[in-house]
Write a structure and sequence with these properties.
The chain has 211 residues and is of the alpha/beta class. The chain has one domain: 3-Layer(aba) Sandwich (Rossmann fold). 43% of the residues lie in helices and 16% in strands. It has seven helices and six strands. Strands 1, 2, 3, 4, 5 and 6 form a six-stranded mixed β-sheet that branches. Helix 1 packs across helix 7 and helix 3 packs across helix 4. The longest helix is centred in the C-terminal third of the chain and has 26 residues. The termini are far apart. The structure holds flavin mononucleotide. Flavin mononucleotide (FMN) binds next to helix 1, strand 3 and strand 5.
Length: 211
């Protein structure tokens, strides 16, 4: 079993990475492979709503979005981490997630995420954490992804990784999240082995609010 942890910060080894590393170490201790996926600092355009993903089977911008989407097919769970920027998720991870989820849905590759557990974590110096978390959780709840929780909202505080290491409660929240994610994955695997099949699906209905 494998969990992909996305570092949505431009800082490869910054505060968000420190939080994700605590989760990754916990997952590994629980016997789950953890891999951190760095968004990096290259520009990530937002979705231009061209619809080409439906034809191409991937986003028209061949960048980290398509690399991640391919990797997601082989992953069993996800953690998306972001620094808080102006009381919201960072611009790069917002562009990234808009295109990841829109292109997989439009390209008929929803199984990359379907019923795979997910969690969002955020890092802030001071405020805007819950607004950013609410924003990130919405990608999962529109995609039939079970949301894994911890014993507090998934946040750490700090301006530097050293600050985050002093946020003992925040780090504990990350470890609990890692254990809960591992437990869920093991339960899912046990259920599948015991013959619990995936839920029945329905043909999608899409009604736009025009009448
Ligand atoms: C453009 C920008 C906006 C920010 N906005 C906020 C904010 O709204 N609230 C806050 O507490 N910190 C804010 N910060 C600070 C970062 O969220 C904080 O230092 C975070 O822990 C950095 O994580 P990182 O090292 O993973 O990038 C902002 C930083 C930047 C660069």
């Amino acid at each position: 079993m494998k969990v992909l942890l996305v570092n949505g910060s431009p800082h490869t080894h910054g505060c968000t990475f420190t939080a994700l590393s605590e989760i990754a170490a916990t997952l590994e201790k629980e016997g789950v492979t953890a891999e951190i996926f760095q968004l990096g600092t290259k520009a990530l355009p937002g979705c231009i709503s061209c619809g080409k993903c439906g034809e191409l089977g991937k986003c028209v911008f061949d960048d980290q979005v398509n690399v991640f989407t391919d990797a997601a097919a082989k992953a069993d769970g996800f953690v998306f981490g972001s620094p808080v920027h102006y009381a919201a998720a960072g611009g790069a991870i917002t562009s990234f997630l808009d295109r990841v989820f829109f292109s997989t849905m439009n390209a008929g590759r929803r199984e990359n995420f379907y019923l795979k557990p997910a969690a969002a974590v955020v890092s802030a110096r001071r405020g805007g954490t819950t607004a950013a978390l609410d924003q990130l959780n919405k990608y999962f709840t529109i995609s039939e992804m079970p949301v894994i929780s911890s014993k507090y909202w998934n946040m750490v505080h700090g301006f530097t990784p050293e600050d985050v290491k002093k946020d003992l409660e925040g780090l504990q929240v990350m470890r609990v999240l890692g254990r809960n994610m591992a437990w869920f994955l093991k339960c899912k695997e046990a259920g599948q082995k015991a013959g619990v099949s995936l839920p029945a699906t329905e043909k999608s209905v899409m009604t736009n609010f025009i009448d």
